[in-house]
What does this fold into?
Amino acid sequence: MNTLPTRMAFGRELIELAKENENFVVCNADTKTCSLEQFEKLYPHRAFSFGIAKQNLVGGAAGLAACGNKVFLATFAVFASMRACEQVRTFVCYPKLNVTIIGTHTGLQVGGDGATHAAIEDVAIMRSFPNMTIVQPADAVAARKIARMAVDFEGPLYIRLHRNAAEDIYDESYEFHLGKANLVKNYGSDLTIISSGILLAKALQAAEILKEEGIFVRVLDMATIKPLDTEAILRAAEETGAIMTVEDHTIYGGLGSAVSEVVVQNRPVPMEIVGIRDRFGESGDPELLYRDHGMDVPSIVDKAKRLFARK
It folds into this structure.
């Protein structure tokens, strides 16, 4: 079942939280990203708009945080991670300010908005900055739980959200624990699939198909990309002997890179990184783009079979 995009679920939850928590402000850039354009109407004294000026947006947010405020800023991830890259690095991360960056419209899901707006490098950029924490919900339920966590979080935080409606994976009993992976399915010990964000649903569909074909896998939701749950990764390597990562991001510097760094230094096992391979995002239907990039369910199944054969 499809529900809200994670960006909308997060924004609406933050507005609800503002009713009982007066300890944060919101900065916008005149773009409709995650419902937070409504925040200004409800709480005009806690909302600041910087226009289409993303570097100024980050600089202003850093200034507000330096004065003791908890600050949320929202813009497209491609602008937060690249156009304002220096400002995020130097004005937010270096002084370790209390700024949460809401990066929306990530990955190939943004095919409807055009190739230039598809942020497929943002995790790699943000992960390289000291003091930066990175989280990514897989559905609307997780987005709401992460919003609650973010209100009390201290320090630089990057939250990666998606453009389109996401298939519900969790129910309201789900609890988000920062820095901890969630074992979503455990069919056996043939291999482990580690995913984060919007493609977790496809990883779970692939796991069902693989089970029917006699390959029994585990699926981990790595909602916290930095810091990684290294214990869960090493347990997967030890108990299943092969790891596949699945992400809507370039294979360079993202979840797959982060997991492989842990694996190669501690418990080398065969790995497969499913993601965008040395290409830019493209305009077009997201599902067709996933197919063309080898990130759809049949492709994940085929790559899992080949990985299992390498054990």
User: Anything to note?
Assistant: The longest strand covers residues 243-250.
